[in-house]
Amino acid sequence: MYHLYTILAALLSFLVTKWMKRRRYCMDVKRLDGKTVLITGGNSGIGKETAVALALRGARVILACRDEDRARKAVREIKNRSRNMNVLFMEMDLANMRSIREFCKNFLQKEKRLDILINNAGIPSVLDWTDDNFSMCFGVNHLGHFLLTNLLLPRLKESTPSRVINLTCSSYKYQKLDFQDLNYNLFPFFTYSRSKLANIYFTQELARITEGKGVTAYAVHPGYVQSNWTCHYSFLYQLFMKVIMFMFFVSCEAGAQTVVHCAVSDEVTAHNGGYFSDCRPAALKPYAKDSGVAKKLWEASERLVKLA
C-alpha cells in the first residue's frame, strides 16, 4: 500500500508540474523584414529569446543593455541562432535617467525607424535605490521605461503602425498604488508587485494617449519563467529556487511566446491597451482597469522624470 501511495503521489506531482508548465506558442508566421525592434534587457532570459524569435523573422533587432560584455555575447548568440546579422547592442542603464536620455538622443540620431519597442528589462524584488534616488523596482521597472517610451514616441509615431509591449506580472494583483508613497521600498515582493501594476496602468494610458495615431500598446504577463532573476540573491536561495523553477516554471523560450504574439499578430490590435497572457487577452482585477488612476500615475511619472 505504501508503494501505491508513493506512485500516486509521484504521478500527481508530475501532472501538476505539466499543468503548471503548459503554455501556448505563437503560431503567427508574419515576417518583419524592414522593421526595427528595440528590446530592453535583451541579453538574457525572455528578452534574448524574444530577440531570437524576431530576428528569425527578419527584423533589425537592437538590444538596449547596461552590461556591454554580456550584451555583445548575446548579440553573437542571437546572430548565430537566427542567421540574421542585423542585430546590435546600444548601451543604456534604466537605473539612470541621464543614461536613458543619452541613449534616446543617440538612437534618434542613428535609427530612422522604430516599429516595435519591447520594455522587457526588469529588476526582481530587491530593496535598493537607483542613481536618481528612486526605489530600484519602481525606478527601473516603471519610471525608466516610462521615460524611454516617451522620448522615443516621436519615432514610433513616424513608423506607424508601431507597437509598445510592456512586460508585467500577475503578481500585480497583490498590491495597489499609494500615491503618497510611489517610492515605497519596504517589503521586496510588495515593491515589485506595485511596479508591475504600474506597468499595466502605463500601458492603458499610453494606449489612450496614442489612440488613432497608429501606435498601440500591450501589457504582457509571460508566465513564471526559468530566467536568471535569482542572481540578485544568496547562493542558498538561488539553489532553492532552481529546484522550484525546474519543477513548475516554463522555459525562457515559452515565456517569450506571448511577447512575440503581441509583436506580430494582427488580432491583438483589437485589444489596444490590453493585458495578455498565454498568447491571448486575459482578465484584470477591476481596480487595475481604473482609467483615473492610470492618468494620475502618468502625470506623477512625468513630474518624477521631469517630462512635465
UniProtKB/TrEMBL annotation:
Taxonomy, superkingdom: Eukaryota
Segment forming the signal sequence: 1-17
Pfam families in UniProt: adh_short (PF00106)
GO molecular function, one term: oxidoreductase activity
Keywords: Oxidoreductase, Signal
InterPro entries: NAD(P)-bd_dom_sf (IPR036291), SDR_fam (IPR002347)
Keyword Cytoplasm among UniProt keywords: no
Family as reported in the entry's similarity comment: Belongs to the short-chain dehydrogenases/reductases (SDR) family.
PANTHER family listed in its UniProt record: PHOSPHATIDYLINOSITOL-GLYCAN BIOSYNTHESIS CLASS F PROTEIN-RELATED, RETINOL DEHYDROGENASE 14
Name of the protein: Retinol dehydrogenase 11
